[in-house]
Amino acid sequence: MTDLQNTVVPLDDYDMSEILGDTPDAFGVAELGFTWRPKEHHVGIRAEPDGRLVAHAGLVVLPVTAGGRHTELVGLGGVAVAADRRGRGLARAVVDGALARARALGPSTAILFCRPDVAGLYARLGWRPVEGPVEVEQPAGPVVMPLRTMWFPLREGAQFPEGAVRLHSLPM
After folding, report:
1. Continuous segment of H or E residues that includes residue 76
2. Statement: residue 12 has pLDDT above 80
3. How far apart are CA 39 and CA 58, in angstroms?
4. I want to staple 56 with a disulfide (CB 3.0 to 4.6 A). Which of 44, 111, 132, 146 is the partner?
C-alpha cells in the first residue's frame, strides 16, 4: 500500500515525536519566542502496516477582527510530514483532510502562519496570502505576526476581509 492510499483520520491519541523525532525546534520558529495555542482537532495519516504516524495537521476555531468585522476563522497549524515520507503527497492529503474537517466547524475561512520557505507549498494547495500585518495575542500583549499569514476559503464564494486583522487569541 502506498502512502497516498492511507486514509486521513481524526486523532485522539498521538505522539508528534513519531513524525518529528526529538528535534527541539521542528517547526523552525523557536527564535520568535512565541506562545502558541494548542489545536483542538487533529487529523493524521498512519503508515501501513505498522501504524506509525507520518503526517499531522491540527485545527482550532479562532476569534478575529478583520476589516472592522468580528468573526471566527479556523486556524490550521502543526502541519508535519515525517522526513522519510516527504515528496509523496502526504502534506496535500493531510491538509485536505484537515480542511474537510474545518468545513464542519462553521467558519467560512481558514488561516495559517508559516515560514516564507514553505509558503509556496501552501500556495500550491490553494492558500492565498493575507495582505498587510496581522496582530496576534501574546502573554505581554498583542504583537505583529512575523510569519506569513495565508487564508483559504472553506465555502463557495468566501472572501477574506480587507483591512486590519487582529487575532484575539494566541496564534496556532
Report:
1. strand 69-81
2. no
3. 5
4. 44
